[in-house]
Amino acid sequence: MNRKSNLTKPILFLCLLAAIISCKTSSRQDSQKKMAVVISTLNNPWFVVLGESAAQRARELGYEAHIFDSQNNSAKEAEHFDNIIAMGYDAILFNPTDADGSVLNVQRAKTADIPTFCMDREINSRDAAASQLLSDNFTGCVKLGEYFVKQMRQKGRYVEILGLVGDNNTWNRSNGFHSVVDEFPELVMVAQQSADFDRNKAMDVMETIMQANPEIDAVFCGNDAMALGAYQAVLAAGKANRIKVFGFDGSDDAIRAIADGKMAATVMQYPVLMARKSAELADQLIRGDANFSHKMPVEVDLVTPDNISKYLPQTTRP
């Protein structure tokens, strides 16, 4: 009786030990299967596509994926990173709110052994993020600037509506545009103002600018949401046939606006490509392969009435 009892004890101990190890292994495996998707704002359909595409690809790769909306608020973004680090996510697919202000958040995640992959927007750090996958904003706006000059016949008065002043995309687009347009002295910029990439703000900004400058021939906006807001202001002022509107993003609404003659041009970005590739790079790193570039540009395309049929949804193509 005693011998049987003595034999049972080590067996029970080994079973208990195996159960504990199994629980720890299971817990560790669960934590390795989570990706956080942090987006600057979900108030813009373009960023909704970016966020949902990143989350979808992460799930296809076998990870849990959760989307966090920073609402264009750096404090909200920092709060998200606090929660993500505390919850032990394995990677962060990140669309920053600020090129400088977001660096600390990414660095904190790196210190916690959580790699961050920037999508569409960059941060001003060489080594904080594992990778940064970005549209070639400067080159895209060089193309747009060249088309702008032709449409304006090298002269006229125009307005520029900027995005977020703390975002490098804002200045890469603006600088690309001006690298071409500033070579033509008869093209005069009468106003330059930020609208934070927001459609409603851009409408208000354009209304105010038109009151002070009634003779305007064109408006260049740093994204399509602002371009559509500016168009609403132009339409309300009865100047839709006179003021040409140029944007950047290639959103569905902008594509339809070009097809309908409401916008002059935009630049097509590829958010789905950037989002899916970022998730794939994160998975690659998690699996132990860090053989990829720290910074990768993604080519963009100029969209005008001349080639709009290529970009219309299949159901609306002529």
Automatic annotation (TrEMBL):
It holds the Pfam family Peripla_BP_4. The keyword Transmembrane helix does not apply. GO terms for cellular component: cell envelope. It is found in: Cell envelope. Residues 36-289 form the Periplasmic binding protein domain. Keywords: Signal. One of its GO terms (molecular function) is carbohydrate binding. It comes from the Bacteria. Signal peptide: none annotated. Gene3D superfamilies: 3.40.50.2300. Belongs to the bacterial solute-binding protein 2 family. PANTHER family: D-ALLOSE-BINDING PERIPLASMIC PROTEIN-RELATED. This is D-ribose ABC transporter substrate-binding protein.
